[in-house]
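Practice problem 4.
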């Protein structure tokens, strides 16, 4: 007897052997069931070698208890002690799987299946499993036989007799034998149906790929045909009944549980399509309707049951279509989009524990391998394997994947799949979530040979392999493109030029030969620059491919690198600052405007980083004016000063464009901005502030150059149109009015000459040829239009507006806002025009009719010939003009009583009108949505084409780039145009009612 307070030697030995509850284990060992063997040291050693010694001991006691009489118990225990292979197998299974322990307790004679240790038993195939299932005549007996076979697979697995690939293949072979047995039971139950049809069962997914899990849906497709001379329709109906029965036999829960679900949802049309189709029906569907992912799924198609000849014919018939899939438009983006969609659908609470679907999980490896197979398997038949690891090996042998990358990926995939197997084996439940319970993690870690600190080591190894997969996932596809051109060192196999060209075409490159030349120029050599480029380019190529114009992205990157490659901070920025490289890739491949602005001063790439000199947040007007005015003060002469101001404008235009592009595309870390209106406001406000600051600096430079510190007349610039409304686009002119007032003692003519000289010189300097984009000043909204003087005194404006003002001028003045010059003079101008733009008692009926006439005339006369009125963003149906004139009419009518309407901004005025209940919330939302969308399209056209436009581009690639900016996936430009027409059509209906009174 052990003294009180002291632990027995057995307790200590149990702790040393890995038991977590030595007290319970000691009681089990002291029980009558294990009395004959409890003192034998080999038992304790064998239990200690299992994944969970406590679970193994408990399972063994249950198994001994379940034996039928003492002779059976003695046979089990004697064999257990005498035969090491049985001991390792039986205890290994009991320590890894509570579910198989339950099976052995219910069927205590099944331990005998683990005794045999012959060559054929070590690596059984379909035939051996068919023999193991031969006696099954109904669903219950099939389940018992299935678990018996599974017991032997699990035993070989946990003992290390078979590796991951062999275990997965055995599970697929057992599934094949099970499907055949289930179909035989179904045919026996309906012999008339069986003789009426030919039915082939084609395995898909992991079963088809010969790499099944312990518990997984078994994906299948059914092909049915009539027998010779039979009715095809009736044959398909008979085959459907057999297929349905076969699925129920495997899937339904009985007293012995279920086997696994048989899933036929990969068939044409999914669950909405017929369960069984003829071969010709399958072919017709795949030729006409199938999506890219459906061809990807067919990579793993393998006939397993029923009429194998028909199944082979199915695979042979569809194979040519599978290997043509990479030629489909948007093939690579489609596959990558599907992968992203899988990740997006993972519940947030599970993503950190998701072993299969999360970034760095099993699906990343499988998708990458399948993508490469589909691209290169057309020309290289050695790649046409449905098994992931075999395909990866073939890709490495052919040079399509770097050998080192393939070895690392193979290692990671084996670890993650083995971990998945151990998780599923415990309860024989379908799951891909890593458990949170420490006991479960300890069991899994020990089963993988991690014994020092199983939980800590398991988490470390899992995270290491997941990080490896995440890093290699993109690199796997793009790295060999560089190896093909860099020619750094001789290797056994390298991606051929033809294969590299093939891969670039699949990525969407229109000129693969040029792309290869760019890669060679960037990546060749032994310089530090080339080494860093080789590290960056695999990821950059993926980001370029995610755009509508990968060629432009790569070309622009080469130009920037040629300009900055010798600058130490440039490559360091891209290498070390996470956001910079991705932001640069997005900006360079989104269109012409941002790259053109960047090429004029490549050092602006620093703005794309997140360091001290970086930051994509547009700067406010005060900071911009401060910088520009400081630059003007430092400059020698007016032209140099305005050149400095235009340089700031160029840099800040680039910053705004880059912000817009990155926010619209999103990044790997941050999704695209969902609030399109916020982006429109950001761009409009930033460009308007920048234009105002540029005009302020130019005005200061011109005055200083011609008159010193003081101009003979006070001078102010009034913003009009989109400028005054803080709604300028990238390519907008600056609509302005100029107002001056002679200083005391200055002659009116002298003041007028000075004011006109200032205007003339400002316009000239802002249009001087230079590397910076010009800024056109448009004063056509002045009194008397182009016929009137460019600049007037405040008194002249007052006299004109009092006597001659027309209703369209009142409407134009709704946007008037001081933007530069003498603020006090500008404020008095605003006070002068307020009664015009917010007339007391609103507009009279004649004025309203005049506005409507003007609008109708503009629609008929100014629409460009041949333009589609449903797609013209400015003058088209429900476009900018429609919304703005409607809002401005409300302002003219009600601004005198509703202070909220006294704003120059369209969206603010629309919101104020809604708040004042001058239009319904629904109408306001409809108009706002159309105005925001039309503005976004105009911004997109300028970003993509590098020049302003009011309608969608006709060029297919440019149109696709506009679509990407607006959030449409590749291949969906038709949806974009339909959505635009739908949105503006609804807005026009509102305009007809509110503006025209229809």
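Answer key:
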């Amino acid at each position: 007897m052990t003294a009180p307070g002291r632990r027995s030697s057995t307790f200590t030995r149990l702790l040393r052997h890995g038991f977590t509850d030595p007290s319970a284990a000691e009681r089990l060992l002291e029980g009558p069931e294990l009395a004959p063997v409890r003192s034998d040291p080999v038992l304790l050693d064998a239990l200690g070698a299992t994944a969970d010694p406590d679970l193994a001991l408990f399972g063994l006691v249950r198994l001994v208890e379940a034996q039928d009489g003492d002779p059976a118990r003695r046979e089990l225990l004697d064999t257990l002690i005498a035969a090491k292979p049985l001991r390792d197998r039986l205890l290994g299974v009991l320590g890894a799987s509570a579910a198989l322990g339950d099976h052995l307790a219910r069927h205590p004679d099944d331990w005998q299946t683990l005794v045999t240790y012959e060559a054929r038993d070590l690596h059984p195939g379909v035939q051996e499993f068919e023999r193991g299932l031969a006696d099954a005549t109904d669903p219950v007996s099939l389940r018992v036989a299935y678990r018996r076979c599974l017991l032997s697979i699990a035993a070989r697995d946990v003992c290390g007799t078979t590796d991951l690939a062999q275990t997965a293949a055995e599970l697929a072979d057992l599934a094949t034998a099970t499907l055949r047995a289930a179909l035989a039971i179904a045919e026996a139950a309906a012999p008339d149906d069986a003789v009426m049809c030919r039915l082939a069962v084609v395995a898909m997914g992991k079963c088809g790929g010969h790499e099944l899990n312990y518990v997984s849906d078994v994906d299948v497709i059914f092909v049915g045909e009539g027998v010779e001379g039979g009715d095809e329709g009736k044959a398909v109906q008979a085959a459907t009944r057999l297929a349905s029965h076969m699925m129920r036999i495997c899937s339904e829960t009985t007293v012995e549980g279920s086997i696994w679900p048989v899933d036929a949802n990969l068939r044409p049309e999914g669950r909405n399509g017929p369960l069984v189709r003829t071969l010709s029906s399958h072919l017709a569907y795949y030729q006409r309707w199938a999506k890219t992912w459906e061809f990807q799924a067919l990579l793993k198609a393998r006939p397993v049951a029923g009429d194998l000849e028909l199944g082979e014919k199915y695979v042979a018939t569809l194979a040519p279509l599978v290997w043509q899939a990479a030629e489909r438009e948007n093939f690579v983006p489609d596959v990558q989009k599907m992968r992203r969609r899988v990740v997006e659908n993972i519940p947030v609470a599970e993503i950190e524990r998701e072993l299969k679907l999360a970034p760095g999980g099993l699906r990343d490896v499988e998708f990458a391998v399948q993508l490469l197979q589909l691209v290169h398997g057309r020309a290289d038949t050695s790649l046409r394997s449905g098994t992931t690891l075999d395909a990866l090996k073939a890709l490495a042998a052919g040079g399509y994947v770097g050998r080192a990358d393939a070895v690392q990926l193979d290692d990671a995939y084996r670890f993650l799949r083995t971990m998945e197997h151990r998780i599923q084996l415990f309860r024989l439940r379908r799951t891909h979530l890593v458990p949170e319970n420490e006991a479960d993690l300890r069991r899994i870690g020990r089963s993988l040979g991690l014994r020092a600190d199983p939980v800590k080591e398991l988490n470390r190894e899992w995270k290491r392999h997941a990080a490896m997969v995440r890093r290699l996932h993109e690199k796997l596809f793009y790295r060999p493109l560089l190896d093909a051109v860099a020619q750094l060192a001789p290797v056994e196999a390298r991606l051929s030029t033809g294969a590299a060209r093939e891969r670039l075409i699949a990525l969407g490159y229109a000129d693969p030969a040029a792309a290869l030349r760019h890669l060679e120029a960037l990546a060749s050599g032994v310089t530090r620059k080339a080494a860093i480029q080789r590290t960056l380019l695999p990821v950059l190529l993926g980001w370029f491919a995610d755009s509508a114009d990968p060629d432009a992205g790569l070309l622009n990157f080469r130009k920037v690198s040629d300009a900055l490659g010798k600058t130490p901070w440039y490559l360091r920025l891209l290498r070390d600052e996470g956001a910079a490289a991705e932001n640069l890739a997005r900006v360079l491949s989104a269109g012409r405007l941002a790259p053109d602005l960047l090429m004029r001063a490549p050092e602006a790439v620093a703005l794309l980083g997140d360091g001290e000199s970086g930051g994509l947040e547009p700067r406010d007007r005060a900071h911009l004016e401060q910088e520009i005015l400081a630059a003007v003060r430092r400059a020698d002469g007016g032209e140099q000063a305005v050149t400095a101001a235009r340089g700031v404008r160029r840099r800040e235009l680039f910053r705004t464009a880059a912000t817009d592009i990155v926010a619209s595309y999103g990044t790997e870390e941050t999704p695209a901005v969902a609030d399109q209106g916020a982006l429109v406001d950001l761009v409009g406000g930033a460009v308007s502030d920048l234009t105002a600051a540029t005009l302020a600096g130019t005005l200061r430079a011109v005055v200083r150059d011609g008159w010193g510190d003081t101009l003979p007349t006070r001078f102010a610039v009034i913003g009009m149109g989109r400028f005054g409304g803080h709604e300028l686009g990238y390519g907008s002119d600056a609509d302005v009015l100029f107002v001056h007032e002679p200083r005391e003692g200055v002659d009116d003519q002298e003041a007028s000459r000075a004011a006109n000289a200032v205007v003339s010189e400002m316009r000239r300097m802002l249009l001087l040829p230079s590397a910076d984009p010009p800024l056109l000043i448009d004063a056509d909204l002045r009194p008397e239009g182009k016929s009137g003087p460019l600049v007037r005194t405040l008194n002249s404006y007052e006299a004109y507006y009092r006597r001659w003002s027309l209703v369209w001028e009142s409407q134009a003045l709704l946007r008037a806002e001081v933007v530069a010059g003498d603020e006090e003079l500008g404020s008095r101008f605003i006070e002068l025009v307020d009664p015009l733009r917010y007339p007391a008692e609103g507009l009279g009926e004649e004025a309203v009719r005049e506005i409507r006439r003007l609008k109708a005339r503009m629609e008929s006369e100014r629409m460009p010939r041949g333009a589609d009125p449903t797609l013209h963003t400015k003058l088209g149906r429900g476009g900018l003009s429609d919304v703005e004139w409607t809002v401005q009419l409300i302002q003219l009518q009600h601004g005198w009583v509703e202070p909220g309407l006294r704003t120059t901004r369209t969206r603010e005025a629309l919101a104020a009108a809604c708040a004042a209940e001058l239009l319904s919330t629904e109408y306001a939302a409809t108009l706002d949505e159309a105005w925001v969308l039309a503005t976004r399209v105009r911004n997109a056209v300028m970003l993509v084409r590098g020049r302003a436009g009011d309608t969608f581009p006709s060029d297919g690639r440019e149109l696709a780039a506009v679509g990407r900016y607006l959030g449409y996936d590749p291949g969906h430009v038709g949806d974009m145009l339909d959505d635009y027409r739908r949105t503006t059509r609804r807005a026009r209906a509102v305009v007809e009612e509110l503006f025209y009174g229809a």
